[in-house]
Amino acid sequence: MRYLLILFLLFSSLYAQAKPLKKVSLQLLWLDQFQFAGYYMAKEKGFYRDAGFKVELKSFTNGTTIEDDVAKGISTYGIGRASLVKFDSSGEKITLLAAIFQSLPNVLITLKSSNINSLEDFKDKTLMQTNDILQGALVNIMLKSSNILPSDIELVEHTFNLNDLIGGKVDIYSAYISNEPYELRKRGIPYKSFYAYDEELDLYSDMLYTSQKNARQNPQEVEAFKLASLKGWKYAFSHIDESVDVILKKYNTQNKSKEALVFEANALKTLAYDGDEKLGSIKGEKLQRIYDIYKILASVDEPLNVQNLIFDIDKVYFTKEEQKYLRERGSISFCTQPDTLPYSAIKEDEFIGIGAGILDAASQKSGVVFQLVHTKTWDESILKAVKRECDILPLASYSPSRTKYFNFTKVYYKEPLVIVTKLEEPYILDIESSLDKTFSVIKGNSYVETLLEHHPNIKIQYVKNEQEGLSGVERGLYDGHIDILMSAAYALQKESRLRLKINGQFDFTVDVSFAIRNDDKVLFGIMNKLAESLTAEDIQKVLNQWIRVNYAKPKVYWYIKEVSGFIAFLIMFFLLREYYTRKKAQEHEALEEELLALNTQLSTEAYKATQDLEKAQEVAQIGSWIYDILQEQLKWSKQTYKIFDIDPKHKEQLFELFQSRIHPDDRELTNTAYTESLENKTDYFFRHRLLLPDGTIKYVQEKCETSYDENGRPTISYGTVQDITDKVAKEKEMKHKDALMLHQSRLAQMGEMMSMIAHQWKQPLSAISSTQITIKMAVELEKFDLSNEKEREEFLFFLDERLDKISLYTQNLSQVITDFSNFYKPNKEAEFLSVDFVILKAYNLIKDSMVSNGIDIHFELSAEYFIDIYENEFMQVILNLLNNAKDQLVESCVENPRIAITTYAQADEIIVEIEDNGGGIKEDVIKNIFDPYFSTKLEKNGTGLGLYMSRMIVSEYHKGSISAENTLFGALFRIKIKNN
User: Fold this and answer.
1) Is the separation of the CB atoms in 366 and 318 below 8 Å?
2) pLDDT tens sequence across 215-233
3) What is the pLDDT of residues 469-496, one digit of tens each?
4) Which residues contact 95 (CB under 8 A, 6 or more apart)?
5) Domain termination residue (choose one: 532, 555, 578)
6) What's the domain count of the chain?
7) Are 688 and 644 in contact (CB under 8 A)?
8) Do 304 and 324 reside in the same domain of the chain?
């Protein structure tokens, strides 16, 4: 019999290995890091696979409500903080499986430079922490021990930015010992840590949990998942370097360094292995402590059932209604078969057999008390159950006729149905070939209905009991007797004189469950949980007791070896056949599930991609279209309909609708542009207007690419259309703003220019005044005798010469006015000019200002090319650069101030360089000098527009660039313009 059990276990294990993996999900608590290494390694090392799971590790995203997702079954498992206790107290929702960290990782950090050396120094300081109520309570308890009130500290909402502590924005920073301390050490910043830790505050963190529904329905799976996860954690902590390498390769979404992950690993390991506690252990008193803290904070109302909260595979969990039911009932009554060992019997008023062992195992798991109702026959037991004089039948099989009075729980035990024949009969390989024979069965057994359902043509004769059927087979009244394997083997052992053997097996099994009176739903729920709680080990333990008792006797009959050997062969044969048959079926089923899942995934992804694309198109105001040129069929996306203001129901005549929406002035241009793109095999890219029915004008930009066949004929155009109405409006607004800023920039220079005009007028006006005085003095002093002809001629010559000078001076003044007037007239069109000419013309306007300030201007002009230039605008750029250089030289009191102006041609560009020796531009501002309204001369009424407008004029008007850099002596501005 020992070998039989070994064979049975061997092939059972083979059968178990063929089962497909169950898909489950684990929702992580935070972003990927070593904090979840145990789960990564359980997956990567195959621990989950070996336990029968295909695990999806769900990444954390903002807005994820892990507790709700797990409670609702959206995620099978989750990882949570101590707040799970508060969550559970609001209802029976979750079950805690393991606490990975036995102590809290929370720590308060201060910089040593802050001179905060104790909790007493926290007073009047700012503390950055999350709004987690438990963390706040722990901090308050810490502070209370130092006589500091919550009002003594200013709380700041957590930004998770360590620079807020380093930069002094806050004094105290709530952190994790596995993360922020590493960053501070890495940066070489001294810090001090304050732990929320003592005997009263030693709480759990990162607890693995699942829903109570999952724990109750699948306790074996939950246990297997827990053990595989803990195995992963043990491996991760024992192989830190390997685990870190796995994270770096596959789970490093935060881009952490290897050093940071190793630091985190070692810090967390100290939390996981705290004292003598076993990895993952959970104690009720710690959970109660967490609950009490929440209770003090008035955050919970319902009492905590600690025992229900902690998962225990050997325990059955009942709802409040079920617990009340059991308290009020006291016990559950049952009826049984009084004389059918090894299954059940009543001897000396005591219930014995396999059924008694099953009820005892269920009672040990749940505490439920069962009370026997004595009967003398199985029919009497059934009658009492029908009359509700007993509540359950512990060993029952489902049959349609019994559902009138009973409900049946989940099957907790299965056994094959066999045929007993004479020893000389050949083995029955094919049951169907033996249906012409007559078999006996015990009347009243539920499996008879199942037998007739599978083999309706089988010939059967009802007998009262096993002995009658077996003796009838030996006497030739029946060709065989049909019964359950254990019952048949037990009877053959008991009736050792009979020369019979187990000689065949049916393809189906007899399923054993609890039968419950069908008028009591609460009792059914209780018994169904008990049936689910009975494991294969529990059943096997009960069976082993009866196998040992009934076969381990001193007297061994001659047929026992034969029967045992045959049973071993029979079990091996059918288990092998069942194994390979089910393996193929499972492989086929797994393939179908995989294909279905893949199809569902593809459909989901396709739908999601479509939704995402439509959302993206809506945000960007971009629609898409496909035009089948050969079929003349046009298809639009949802956003395209919206852009053209056309109902999506109109899927016909889209091309005509498209044409009707194009602005009348743009239709011919649009059609021509598309036709030319087809003829030239180029991309179509065109901007045009739409005229909507309500008179609204939209601007759109269309682009498309066309596919061609082997003959070069266009086949399909794929295009996009973008609503750029807002963009066009902004462009117009920007152009208007640029014009205003250009005008503002010129006005800003007007004061300085007026100063230059005054300076240039000063000398001619002085000369005119001097000449006028000379004439007046000559007349008043009668220097010339006008009565004398010769002197009169000399006077006229003197007067004519002085008037010519006045005329020359006046012309000079007029030219100055003309030059400055022309400068303030913006060019509407570019002129074909030399860059050197424009530079010299600009210089002449400020020449006197440069000379008066003693600034030496050095020219090296060798750009001989003529290009299209907006003269006055370009002059404004040159004047702005020269005036900035002059201001810097004057302000810095540079000895021998000098400005060099150089032009030259290089490849296809003309380069203009203006360099001074004023010491250069400060490095911290040089990158910002071309920004609008950025100025280093605010105290001198600088507008900050000069260089910004210069860059705009060079880039927008002349399609060039302007840059600045520091040289050995000063600043160098370089202008590059294409040589067209």
Assistant:
1) yes
2) 878 888 999 999 999 999 9
3) 999 999 999 999 999 888 888 888 777 7
4) 209, 210, 211, 212, 214, 215, 222, 308, 309, 310, 311, 317
5) 555
6) 5
7) no
8) no
